[in-house]
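Q: Sequence in, structure out?
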Amino acid sequence: MIRRIDLIPSSIKLFVVLTFDFLSICCAFFLAYFIRVGIEGIDISWREVAVFLTVTLSTFLLFYITDIYNSVVRYFNAKSFLRIQSLLIVTTIIFYLSGLLFDAFIPRSVPIIFLVITSVFIAGARALIGFIMDKHWFNEREGVVIYGASNAGRQLVHALSLGNKYQPLAFIDEKERYIGRNVLGLKVFPYLKINQLVKKYGQFKVLIAVPKVDPIRLKQIVASLEPYALELLIIPSMSDIVSGKRTIDELREVSVDELLGRKAVKPIPELLSANITNKIVMVSGAGGSIGKELCRQIVQHKPRKLVLLDVSEAFLYEINQELTELLQENKSELTIEPLIGNVQNGMLMTHIFNTHNVQTIYHAAAYKHVPMVEHNVIAGITNNVLGTYEIAQAAIYCEVETFVLISTDKAVRPTNVMGATKRLAELVLQGLAKKDHDTRFIMVRFGNVLGSSGSVVPLFKKQIKKGGPITITHPDIIRYFMTIPEAAQLVLQAGAMGTGGDVFVLDMGKPVKITDLAYKMTHLMGLTIKCDDNPEGDIAIEYTGLRPGEKLYEELLIGNQPKKTFHKRILKANEFALPWPDVAKMITQLTDAMRDEDVIKIRTLLQGFPLEYMPNPTEQKEKRTEESKAGIQATSVEEVKEDALCLT
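A: Exactly. Output:
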């Protein structure tokens, strides 16, 4: 409706307003006489007509001089009302004086009655239109309930009143001083009475207006609202609002890391910058999810030069553009060197390291998707194992100071080719670390990364928005999760702590059941899961069965009794390593089998190597399922901490 009014030409709007004001003055003038003397007492002569014309022209002139007709009626407020009211008082005085001037019949009460009627017609009509348009009565605004009746919540109500999307219905708050009272015309309810709101208003969105909230507290808020299947949105952080980057009504979805509710692992600044500041740093796989975040973190610690390496021109272009714009905004003189290349090309790697005098390497280039590598065994080994071997050899030859490998929890007792290749890549670096050279080789192992390409979170979001079904391989499957920034910071810190051949893992807390994650994500988007208990639900879950090589849950440690580090949430794994001759023999055997394109032999070799690779661990699955149901995790970080070390 507002949009249609906006399309009307200004000249037509002005004509309508002038006509309305003229008719209002006419009605007010004659009604004032009618109320005072009745119909029989009205005797209009040229004197009264002269008074009427004087009053009318004076009103239009005053309104024109004070820019009343340039004001937008939609935004009429108390200040505008007082302004018009003061002008009408002046007009009333002119009414009285002109009656004396023309010797017209004007009883003393007529100008006062005229003032009251014109105030109702002219100022009142404008106020009514402004109120209606402010409330957007002609629009279908979506009802929302605001969680938090304090300052941020009140600001949000004011911001929403200027838009045409949301209509605040009520507040939810836990503070006793607010509950049961009205704030800005909205009643404040305790969260325990959400059912009443749902019965009264039906399904609505909940806008969380708590700008400064601890992750654990936010998880509690989300947990109290999530069972009602109400879509949750949250206001930006206060720092973004104060800096002007965001406005309070720029709402966003509750992120999955906020849903999981684990406090972010705080980094140690000295460890973050140790291998970066004033050094020449290279990131392989710079265009991937982890590689991009590594680059974002690295530029904050002022390296001398950052070399970006990726085999994908498109991904390399994206991260190079992003970093270039970021550096321009910050007026940084850091040199960014984007290079297209494959880590499997040892000669190219040597050329790059020598040309740019690389001092620190973060090796994130790998094939990581389990099903893809399972169907492309040779490509997976070529990239993940031989590529790591080639770039590591080049690093030794060029005397690179630090080499950090991005590994995965799937390398622990692997059940798939991808995990086996990453474990073998770890053994390659552990073997090379024992040789006589000056390069430190460090490995960093972590679980699933929220929001990374191919992760379950964006897949679930896509499936929910399409109306389902949500596909899950097994109802009991569980996973560890961490955020992309956490993963990148772990890599940077571990590179500073390692002495050579070290494997580091992050204590990521308790694992998450994927089915529970699906339920929570669906509820947070305002939908429900269709199941036996809720056949009328919106989204169905479809269990597709474990994929080849997929575990019910992942582990982070192979051996027991990990060692403490400078960071209380980072552990150093205590695991066996092979001497380089044994590793070299395995690489030779794999290379020969790949030359013959003998995938069966390659799989057999992987099972024969000391990787604990078991592609079909049926008995192990059953055992671990029972342990999972009983709440047992023999090799989890939590149990190792209890049985071996106190890491707090």
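The radius of gyration is 36 Å.
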